[in-house]
Design a protein that fits this description.
Two copies of one chain form a homodimer. By secondary structure, the first copy, chain A, is an alpha/beta fold. Chain A has 14 helices and 16 strands. In chain A, helix 6 links the parallel strand 9 and strand 10. The N terminus and C terminus of chain A are likely disordered. Chains A, B: InterPro entries: ADH-like_N (IPR013154), ER (IPR020843), GroES-like_sf (IPR011032), NAD(P)-bd_dom_sf (IPR036291), Quin_OxRdtase/zeta-crystal_CS (IPR002364), SV-ATPase_mito-regulator (IPR052100).
Amino acid sequence: MAKEGADMTEETQFMIDTNPRKEPEHVESSGDAKEMRAVVLAGFGGLNKLRVTKKAMPEPQDGEVKIRVKACGLNFLDLMVRQGSIDNPPKLPIVPGFECSGIVESVGENTAGFEIGDRVMAFVNYNAWAEVVCTPADFVYKMPEEMSFAEAAAFSLNFVAAYMMLFEVANLREGMSVLVHSAGGGVGQAVAQLCSTVPNVTVFGIASCSKHAAIRDSVTHLFDRNVDYMQEVQKISPEGVDIVLDCLCGENTAKGLTLLRPLGTYILYGASNMVTGETKSFFSFAKSWWQVEKVNPIKLYEENKVIAGFSLLNLLFKHGKCNLVKSVMDKLLCLFDQKKIKPVVDSLWALEEVKEAMQRIHDRGNVGKLILDVEKSPTPLMASDSTETSEAGEEEEEPEGDNDSKERMPFIH
Amino acid sequence: MAKEGADMTEETQFMIDTNPRKEPEHVESSGDAKEMRAVVLAGFGGLNKLRVTKKAMPEPQDGEVKIRVKACGLNFLDLMVRQGSIDNPPKLPIVPGFECSGIVESVGENTAGFEIGDRVMAFVNYNAWAEVVCTPADFVYKMPEEMSFAEAAAFSLNFVAAYMMLFEVANLREGMSVLVHSAGGGVGQAVAQLCSTVPNVTVFGIASCSKHAAIRDSVTHLFDRNVDYMQEVQKISPEGVDIVLDCLCGENTAKGLTLLRPLGTYILYGASNMVTGETKSFFSFAKSWWQVEKVNPIKLYEENKVIAGFSLLNLLFKHGKCNLVKSVMDKLLCLFDQKKIKPVVDSLWALEEVKEAMQRIHDRGNVGKLILDVEKSPTPLMASDSTETSEAGEEEEEPEGDNDSKERMPFIH
């Protein structure tokens, strides 16, 4: 099967822009109103499966809003989609991306509340990484005036997920403690900020050493992801922590459960440990599934513990909870207006730089959110608030489990 | 090992009062202040392991309150203790029982807030089934004036457990739905009452048919425990339920998880399915442990579901959460004062009738709580609010898994 994958790679190679910078005509804004630029995933695998190309302009159906996209969020999940390391991977080719911000260009029937020209942020079930996207009005939210498009694209998924985990799934209250993996990532930074809205919450953050300087002030205690964080946490808080937020899975599940106080809640909201290299076999999801340690309910009973899973995208697109998410978004926008929370943008990338951006998130080089800036020309530019982090391609940190350095050289496949 | 167990039974037979009614001197209140009557468990196994005997009068240590017991609660867990079907069974002989009500007879040092003569209810880490018990003041609560001793003994464990599961572990809110197994039992009835304090909550109750007439008004939908309740619930609520409360374990865990809505919570708070007959091997706990289906965290992630375990006794006696329980008790006593909740007493039994009472809860004959009334003479008397239920020994319902009817005849071993 790995062999077949390799064959397929060669077969589809001719379709793929291996270096889109050589083709500036794709970079320019499309003058033809029937077409738009978009990032397209042509096959599951490495960075070379992505290219920017022109696609037919979408038009809004009943209940949909058409958005002229200004900025898109890039999440670790997008890497997993690229590799096919998710349950029910989409049919290809597809335009990736689950969130964006922009301006309403037109509306379908039954989209009360939205007008042409509205500045909005939105969830999309794929297709976000494009100049134009249509999505049901249920997934669209008006942006506050003081919010930039980049901030809006960094806001929706991370803050809604962080809020729902802390306050809907767990029940964060005064005096509690929270342990968060990937504390420097988009969700991690949102978690840290939301915890600071509750009095006397202790946040244990785990992140790569390279990020420590940038995020030290956002958490109470910061640990290197390469050290035995269990021992460190237990030294400070022998009775454990109230909430563990884990986007890694694997061995961290058992560790997280062990670290919980009685009545504590462990929440799995991602499985980025499933991504170990640049490419991944089609069987990796199933394999990872079986490798995860199962939990005995009777153990939970004896220890008074709670284990939860949280997938915001499934909640929105499979489980029909858009009204609940809407109410959460309202609360978050209040907190934003009160200047209690503010999305952290790591860096802005042109659509044509999606590979560099993906490499950066793969290498865990980001502090906060990576943004695809649809109107940006392909010259990397770091956001002002992330100057302490290194650029993609300059990473000192070893990507996990991929030992052939030729393979790991960014953008060369 | 089973053989050894049988041998031990014979060895210890001489210790046991097989028919305490023939020895009325044990029934009378003990005039000697240095001694008290108590139920003693001499070995793990059947009803014949229990007897009423005299024991040395306990005296309160530092921080303890000495209570002249009026009434004790009998829980399904007491059966599991008797059989040794729990993790870390106690050293024998022991006086069983985890909750009681009574009058403060004396207090140790550092028991501020309690005075001799106070009417109280209390949790005890074993030893409740006696005329006198000493327990830390942290586990003692003053009774409202309008509460009888029988009600108080029926209140603590069931209502605190039900409240904490609904409002601390899960987050019961307006419009939600709750499925509760053993809806006719003490916790089940407390759950139903607490659900009625929140607007528009749908309660799916599962109970033996024989209890349906007595509890029909307490729940929204009532199902026979012998039918496929999953199908019935899904017919009424295709999207599932928000909270499942399961004291049975076994196959109900997988069913409960399947029935959950996204963001729903399954709580395991007992494992009475582990008790299948009158007696049980010492290995039964370990065996049941391995038979329980383990839960994959990635499945929870994909389905946005929560699984929790809840053991109030571990929370109190192992996990040091007496302050949290105290705050919950305060809220419950407010609800009692407002006449929004009221413990349901199934029946009152003398200490010497503990075997009949245990047989009744084993046969799932009770509606609400079985109470050991310490001052009662051994003549069965049904509480006024439970006249529709049959007495122990007249059960039509088959006890599970124990097919030798001679074995099952109450009190004959």
